[in-house]
Amino acid sequence: MTEILIRGAKILAVDAAHGTEPFDGDILIEGATIRAIGPQLSAGPDAQIIEGRGKLVMPGLVNSHTHSSETFFRGRYQGMPLEIWLLYAYPLLMNGAIGERLLYLRSLLLAMESLKNGVTTFCDDFFDPPKHDLDRLGTVFRAYDDVGIRANVSSAVMNIHTLDALPFAREVMPQNLQDQLDFGPPITADAYMDYCKSAFSSLHGKAGRLNFMIAPSAPQRCTRDLLLACYDLARDKAVPFHTHVLETKTQAVTGHEIYGKSLIAYMADLGVLGRNTTIAHSVWVSDDDMRLMGEAGVSIAHNAVSNQKLGAGISPIRRLLDAGVTVGLGTDGVCSNDTSRIFDVMRVAGLIHSVSGPDYSKWVTADEIVRMATIGGARSAMLEQVTGSLEVGKAADLLILNLRNYPFMPLNNVAKHLVYSENGSSIETVMVAGRIVMQAGKLTTVDEDAIFDEIAELVPVHLAEHAELEKRNAVFEPVMAEIHRRSMLQDIGLNRYQGDLPAWPGKN
Q1: What keywords are annotated for this sequence in UniProt (predicted)?
Q2: Fewer CB atoms near the end CB (10 Å): N or C, the chain?
Q3: Contacts of 37 (CB under 8 A, 6+ apart)
Q4: Where do runs of H (alpha helix) occur along 384-476?
C-alpha cells in the first residue's frame, strides 16, 4: 500500500480537538486514508516524502451545491432575477438533450476547475431534461471518476407543471403562451423510485468516492407522494434529500399562495425535514422556519455569490447557526456565479453578513466560514465521517498551500487569511482519497490542454443552438417579470433583520 508522509507542515485540521487553530506536525497517509497525525512520524522506506516546511495542510473544500448543467454558460448572463434567468439557463421550450460527448466534457470541466481551486468534494444537482436516463447519468459519473474528484450526483426531479409552481402564473400568462408549454405526462413517484433504485444498484459507491443522492427540485415543484417517496429512499440509503427552498421572494410568496404557509412549514407538516434534508439557499426563511429546521437537524448550502448575482437576497446565516442548522457553502451553477471557486464564496460570505444588522457581535467570523467550507459542507453532504476534516481514519482529502505567497505574507491568522486573502493561487497540491490529483498547478489525471482544445472546437456550435433557444424563450420574459414584480410587492410578514437586533453590544 502506497505511503505518503507530509513532514513538518502547519496543519489546519478543523477537527474537534483543534478547530481552526493550526499546529505543526506530520501527516502519514496509507492508501486512501490518514493513518497518523503528529510530531516526528516515521514511514516505510518506500514512502513518498513531501516536505511541509512553509506549507499549510488543510482539508479539501466542499462545494455543497452546484449544477454541472450550467458549466458551458459561464459569463453569459447578468442583471436578471432568478425567475427570468431560468428562462435562458433552463428554457421552458427545449431542444433535445446535449450530446453525450459534450455531456462528458461539461461535467469534466466543472470537476477540473473545482480540483484546481481546492474543492475535493462537490454535490452536483445534475438536471438533464427531458427524461431520466441511467446511461447519461453514468457518463457524468465516468467524468468524475476519470478526474478523481469526490462527488454526490443527483438526477433532479420535478413533476408539477412550471406554471403551477409559481404564484400568479396562470393569471398573468396569456393562454396562447400557456398552450406552448405541453411537457407531456409528468413522471410518477413510482417511476422515479425505480430509476433511483437502478442508480443505487449500478452507480452508487463507484470508485469509493462517487455517490448518488436524491434531489427533488423544490417542494412546490413536486407532488406530495414524490416528496415522501424521495425522503424515505434518502433515509433508507443514508444519502442527502437535496432540494431548493426559499431562494427568492417569489418562492416565499409561492408557499403562502399555494399552501397557505411557508414552504418550510409545508415540508415540516409533510414530514420531510430531517437529518438527510439539505436545503440550497434558505434566504427567505422566518424565525419559525429556522426553529423547525434546527429542531429537525437540517443542513443548508449557503450560495453567497449566486444569491447576490441573481438579486435573491442574503441568507440569515447567524440566525440559522443559532437555531442549530448546519451550514455548508455552495457555488451554485457556474452561470449564476461564473466560477466554481469556493474561496470566492468564502470571501463574499465573510463580507456580506456584516450588513445583517448593527450588532457586530453577531457578524459571521472567519473561523465559522472555514468550518462551513469544510466540515459543515461535508455534513450537508452526509459525508462528515469520510471527509471535511483531517483526522485519523478519514479519507486523505487535503490541500497543501504555499505560505510563502502573497495571501499569507506576512502570516497573522490562518483562518482570516483563507477567508479574506486567499483565492486559490497558493494551492500547490490537491489530494483526494490519498491520490495526488493536482501538483505544481497541473492536474495529474487528465490532459488539460487537450480538453480545452476539444471544448473550443465542439462547444461553439452548441452555444449557437442555445442562442436560438434563448430567442424562442424570450417571449415568456414579460410574464416572468410581472410575476417577479407582483411578488416583490407582496407582504409576507418577514422582517429581514428580525431577531438580529436585540440590543447594541454591551447594552442591557
Answers
A1: Hydrolase
A2: C
A3: 11, 13, 25, 26, 27, 28, 390, 391, 392
A4: 414-420, 448-473
C-alpha to C-alpha distance for 39 and 27, rounded to whole angstroms: 9
Pick from 145, 40, 95, 118: nearest CA to 387: 118
- Residue 435 β-bridge partners: 432
Sign of torsion over alpha carbons 300, 330, 115, 363: negative
The residue-averaged pLDDT of 341-363 equals 94
Express each pLDDT in 426-464 by its tens digit: 999 999 999 999 999 999 999 999 999 999 999 999 999
| Cis bond upstream, residue 240 (ω within 30) | no
User: CB within 8 A of 157, min separation 6: which ones?
Assistant: 132, 187, 192, 215, 216, 217, 222, 226, 230
Retrieve residue 473's grid coordinates. Answer: 424563450
8 A C-beta contact, residue 306 and residue 336: yes
pLDDT band at 356 (very low <50, low <70, confident <90, very high): confident
Give CA 27 to chain center in angstroms. 28
Kindly list the distances between the CA atom of residue 258 and the CA atoms of 167, 169, 255, in Å, as whole numbers in the listed order.
8, 12, 5
Domain ranges of the chain: 62-395
CATH assignment of 62-395? Answer: 3.20.20.140
